[in-house]
Each structure stands twice: as C-alpha cells, then as structure tokens.
Amino acid sequence: MGLLVDGVWQDKWYDTSASGGRFVREDAQFRQRIGGEDDRYPAESGRYHLYVSLACPWAHRTLIVRTLKDLQSHIDVSVVSPIMLENGWTFVTEEGSTGDIAQGHALMHQVYSAAQRDYSGRVTVPVLWDKQTSSIVNNESSEIIRMLGAAFDDLTGNHLDLYPSALRQAIDDWNSRIYPAINNGVYRAGFATSQNAYAEAYAEVFAELDHIDAHLAHHRYLCGDTLTEADIRLFTTLIRFDAVYHGHFKCNRQRLEDYPNISGYVRDIYQLPGVADTVDFSHIKTHYYASHGTINPTAVVPLGPDIDYARPHGRAALAEEPAAA
Ligand SMILES: N[C@@H](CCC(=O)N[C@@H](CS)C(=O)NCC(=O)O)C(=O)O
C-alpha cells in the first residue's frame, strides 16, 4: 500500500492521525469523458482498456456495466494480483490475474506515471486507459460507469439505460446516501484507528442497511422495477459484505443473509445474465485478508462463509411503483 509523490513510489499506509482515527478517501484525479464535447476521447471499439482488481468494489462496478452493456469485445481488461502490499497493485499472471495486457508493466503505479510522469496521489483501480494517446481517461468508477452506460450505444446496439432521465433524481438521491453510509461506510469502519471513528461508521452502515431493507420490502430495485446504476453501485459492496466486511471490517451487527429483503435483492442482481461471472470470492477474500497487515497481520484467509447466491431470490413477483429514496 502506498502512493506516488512527484512520480516516485512511497510505501505508506493511510494516515488517519489528522482526522481523529477516521479514514478519509482521496478524490480521483483523472476525470475526462469518453464521448465528451471536446471529442478528445471518441467512443471507438478496441481503443480503451480497463485496469481492475476483481477484489475491489469500485472496479467491480465497471466490470458489471461492461457486461450488461455488451462491451466485452470493445473494451479489454487487465486484472491485477489480489494481493496489494509494499508495491501497491501489481501484475501477475496466475489464478484469474491477467498481467498488464495493454502495456506489459509489472506494477500499477507505472500505469499512472506513464500517463503523467510527475503524478502525485494514490494509485487506485479502476483505471480507464486510452491506448491511442497513452493517457488515463478517468479513474473514478462512478464516472466510468456513466460513460460505459451510454457512450458506446451506437457501436453495440445495446440501449439498456442504467440512468434514465425519469429516474435521475431518485438515482442521485440514492447514490448520495449510499456512497457515504455503505460503499465508503464499510471502509470507514474497517480502516478506523480509533474506537469512536469505528463506532460512528458502524452505526451509519447499519442505519442505512435497515432503511434499504425496509424499502426493498415493497420495491424490487432501489428505484422501483427498473434496475439502475444505483443498484450496481450498492451491489458491489453488498456481495462482499458477509465474506469480508462482516468479519475483516468489523461490520458485525448482523450478516446481510439475515436481512429479509436485502438477502434476496443481492441474489436477484447476482443472477442477472453475466453478473455472477464478474464475482470472484477468491480474489475478494485473498485481497482484504492478505493485504491489510495492520488489520490482519497473520494474513490467514477465512474459509467461510458458504453462501449459495444462485438459490432462488423470489423477488420477481414484487408489484412495483417508482420509488424515491
Ligand atoms: N473513487 C475511486 C476509489 C477507487 C479505490 O479506492 N480503489 C481501491 C481498491 S478497492 C484502491 O485502488 N486503493 C489503493 C489505494 O488507496 O492506495 C473510485 O470509485 O473509482
């Protein structure tokens, strides 16, 4: 775990000393768009590349949207090693990791310095890379999924709309409560270095899960009967919850399996065509338990839990009306 300072790698764990033990996530720095008005990055088949970790919930969002939007043959993917230690994310070619198939680097931070020689900041995945200009288009998952969700529609003929105009307000509302409380909330609990910071995050995680569970009693998806990007953004945290966040990040008031509605909702999304293939519990568990030496110094990876996400979800029959957050 570390970061680049003026293009030079430094091995450093997150510094929580200035924030009362609270983990504060840094903003992503590359924020360009495919299909933007300046036409710098036009939507073209084979031009763009995704760097992902199968362990990472943020990167996982991009893989799901790539699948749902039939982009597999248009955007190829490099998968990093699940283990992230003193060199940060690295490239290996074993057990589901592909190596860097776009540029042949050994280390993910070389992708960042290839884009910007004096880059200072964290070296995160996902990264959307442009092979033509050797630049990073974007390294913020919420923006990458927006682009993949619309920019390539003419190329693929896939017009599935994960951010439909009629639901945008509701989607934005859900995103703005779910990001702090759930997506980042589990990290704030897990990376907290004081009891108070942990307790604060824990309370927020479960208050929001309770709210979502009550909502899902009457609605198949967050915004009614239409699957949207808000569901994808929530799902990638939920699918990791019982395997990792419950134990490793101490979010252990209850498992998601014990929520009457969330448990079926997770299976519903898991069972959408192609989604199960994007979920790799081996990378997920290995990453968290074997990479965070400050939390789990033995790096022993737990064998459980044993949950069958392919069993019936029973949610198709829910009568729906559009729903706000
Ligand atoms: N805002 C980013 C966050 C991405 C992120 O933090 N990814 C984690 C992996 S789960 C990472 O690469 N962390 C490495 C680090 O912080 O040094 C996004 O949503 O794309």
Characterise the protein shown here.
- The protein has helices at 57-68, 108-115, 141-150, 153-156, 168-183, 185-190, 195-216, 229-245, 262-270, 281-291, and strands at 3-5, 8-10, 48-52, 76-79, 121-122, 127-130, 135-138.
- With 325 residues, it is of the alpha+beta class.
- The protein folds into two domains: 3-156, Glutaredoxin; 165-291, Glutathione S-transferase Yfyf (Class Pi), Chain A, domain 2 (Up-down Bundle), CATH 1.20.1050.
- The strands form two sheets. A four-stranded mixed β-sheet has the order 4-3-6-7, with helices on both faces. Strands 2-1-5 form a three-stranded antiparallel β-sheet, with no helix packed on it.
- β3 (48-52), α1 (57-68) and β4 form a beta-alpha-beta unit.
- α1 runs parallel beside α3 (141-150) and α1 packs across α8 (229-245).
- The site of glutathione has 13 residues, from α3.
- Residues 1, 28, 53, 56, 58, 122-126, 140-142 line the site of glutathione.
- Pfam families: GST_C_2, GST_N_2.
- One of its GO terms (molecular function) is oxidoreductase activity.
- Its EC number is 1.8.5.-.
